[in-house]
Design brief:
The protein is an alpha/beta fold. The protein is built from ten helices and nine strands. A seven-stranded mixed β-sheet has the order 5-4-3-6-7-8-9. Helix 8 links the parallel strand 3 and strand 4. Helix 5 crosses helix 7. The chain is globular. It starts with a helix and ends in an 11-residue tail after the last strand.
Length: 295
């Protein structure tokens, strides 16, 4: 790591790179509008009295959350700052050829904030910010940073959204989600991982994240419906309970395929009429979704 003046210069360069055209962030409502326009221009250009009324109601819900909630400031965010800035710039914002850059400002800010190194085993912390998944024990992994950011962007979260994560793992993805909304629910089937993740999330100030140890295939019915669902392990099919718990107008991001097959990352939308629209966005490789009989 660089030291002295060089270290300061690197931080300044990486934190300002590509941000010249961003609006001032003091107005959170303007920030959300900016993210919508940049990441989802079709939604931003919608017109018509009915659409405008619905969007006004949504904006009021978002504004209320913004007025009452601030994203956590994890203590670990003061550590490994330059490593995290490099990770975001070179893996996520300006990634290697063949990857789709992540553009949503709120997602980028979350990735710059969450201290990934505290969510990996101690003996692997020196590798926490490399462009790769890492083992976290019990046959599971923490996804590479780009995949975490890209899947989060695909969810199209706003501060009023309620999101369910299937596969807590180390807790890193849940922490990223918790920078975007206070309404995060996450389920982990493997007891040692669930305990470790809950401890890490609590220590880093993510006490609002609701955790559960159980079979994520069945979702979390008592807290349904959800605006968004993210599955962080590969399923052979879309679990029917998760589809039922997805709110009309919501979306699910889920890898589909077997452990030894080319898996597809799907974005599955539920229309207001309850119909399914699916789009495959990329080939991926995830560990298989563990079920209760496989623990």
């Amino acid at each position: 790591m660089a030291t002295g003046a060089l270290s300061v210069a690197i931080v300044l360069l990486l934190t300002t790179c590509g941000q010249a055209d961003k609006p001032a962030r003091s107005d959170s409502r303007s920030a959300f509008a900016y993210d919508l326009a940049q990441s989802h221009p079709d939604q931003a250009r919608q017109s018509g009295d009915n659409v405008q009324a619905a969007e006004a109601d949504k904006a009021d819900d978002i504004a209320k959350v913004i007025d009452e909630w601030m994203p956590p400031q994890p203590p670990g965010a003061t550590e490994r700052v330059v490593d995290r800035q490099r990770m975001v710039q070179h893996q996520i914002v300006d990634p290697p050829a063949g990857r789709i850059p992540v553009k949503n400002y709120s997602v980028i800010k979350a990735m710059r904030t969450v201290p990934r190194h505290v969510f990996v085993p101690a003996d692997l912390r020196s590798r926490a910010y490399i462009d790769s998944p890492l083992p976290i024990g019990n046959g599971q992994t923490i996804s590479q940073p780009y995949i975490v950011a890209y899947m989060t962007e695909l969810l199209q979260l706003d501060p009023a959204a309620k999101v369910l994560e299937i596969g807590t793992g180390s807790g890193y993805q849940a922490a990223v989600l918790a920078q975007l909304t206070p309404n995060v629910y996450t389920i982990e089937i493997i007891s040692p991982l669930a305990k470790t993740a809950n401890k890490s999330l609590t220590e880093q100030g993510y006490k609002q994240v609701k955790t559960k140890q159980g079979d994520g295939y069945f979702g979390w019915e008592e807290h349904a419906p959800f605006d968004a669902i993210i599955v962080t392990a590969a399923a052979g099919h879309i679990p029917p309970p998760l589809w039922q718990q997805l709110k009309p107008g919501g979306r699910m991001v889920v890898p589909i395929g077997g452990a030894y097959e080319v898996q597809r990352l799907l974005v599955v939308e539920k229309t207001e009429e309850g119909k399914r629209r699916s789009k495959s966005v990329m080939a991926v490789r995830f560990v298989p979704l563990t079920r209760s009989t496989e623990k």
